[in-house]
Amino acid sequence: MVQQSFMPFFAPFGWLAVMLLIGVILRAKVGFFQRFLFPAAIIGGLVGFIVKSAGWCDIPYETFVSFAIHLFTISFISIGLTGTDEAAASHSGSMRKSIVRGMLWMACVYVAMIAIQGLVGGSAIYLSNLITGNPIWPGLGMLVGTGFAQGPGQTVALAAVWENSFHIKDAVSIGLCFTAIGFFIASLVGVPLANWGVRNGLTTTKAGALSRDILKGLHPRKKGDPAGKLTTHSSNADGLAFQLSIVLAVYILTYFECQLMESLLPGPIKALAFGLMFLWGMFTAIIIRWLLGKMGLTDYIDNNVQRRITGVSVDFMIIATLTGVKVTAIWGNIIPILLVSLTAGLVTFGFILYFGRRMEEYGFERMLAIFGTATGTGASGLMLLRIVDPDFKSPAAAELGLYNAFALVLLPLTLVIFPLPQMNVLILFAVLTGYALAAVAGLKLFGFWKARSW
Q1: For residue 439, what are the domain limits?
Q2: Which of the residues 65, 101, 153, 377 has the least number of beta carbons within 10 Å of its own beta carbon?
Q3: Cα angle value 383/248/65 (rounded, 5°)
Q4: pTM strictly above 0.85
Q5: What is the chain's Cα-based Rg?
Q6: In whole numbers, what is the pLDDT of the chain averaged over residues?
């Protein structure tokens, strides 16, 4: 019984936990990882990829990919259950206006980058096909926009649908490879860029040297921050178990919602049911939190604990996604992967730098935060921001969380990209072009496209 249940259920979690511990140890001990602020999950995921590729782990690749998809959904549910902080209300009227402008700027740049990265990736695949003679489907190049700007979870969710439902070979591994390269760009380009800005006095707030606990990734002993508060009495139920149960209850409800949608949706768009399970889960969580608010029960949901659940899900998800990359898929497509990644990375850097230099207030901080997000995740953006604004005195950190309020404008794009293999790829080219033009027009409309400020 123990042996039969260990491998398909508990062994993968044990594996991911060991890789995370290795990542934490290496971050604390290796100067290179500290210099570029590599998160432990990235380090552990790379170690997992090496060990798995060497054949020292017999857990199937598909198991890690499945874990990543489920953890991604759980992270979105916990985000939906997490309420907004009241800290923003304490800002002055002028600061609130600045935050709104920063949110608009970040939203326009982020939407533009997703579209432009996809266009660059698809075009690079066309060029690669001409160079190598390989008939690679251009949609795989468009995965770079998802891998760079939307992170591993969204990439796995999309690529898994393409690979399993539409039989696009190696979609998951190629998409995850783009994700891994994006994290490298965020660190290997973003950290030197941040230090350059500090040396040249481009930051609004004074940035000192990063403390040893930030570099090592470990709090000093007995000085860690509290993780949250208990909302249940320990004689009744553990507080963490209660918070996690809320998340998983929403998860089960979302699963049945997806089953219902799959039975009702026609033809190729059936993939939108479970393919967008993370999005339906977040919507369901938001609705449930709203209902609890009407009943006066939201005090039983602790925001800090929910953030910890989100963080746990993301850390384990990153390790699972990197471990799930098949080395054979990478080497078989190494030229197009490198061509797409290099081109998308250069365009991303140039675009964000161009518009970042046209922001009068906190321009460097905002540029750095959105660069990390557009190549890694929101955590990557905060990591880079901490270098130039260690105490988060600028509004950039708040804006990085709040700009997601505009993310719903990406929903129509999501509805197109998931069933793309059943459509003409030129349709997505047209949609991405429309998004890019609209986002750039927004930068002009809101007064963000003007003379350089720094």
Answers
A1: 7-215+231-445
A2: 101
A3: 60
A4: yes
A5: 22
A6: 89
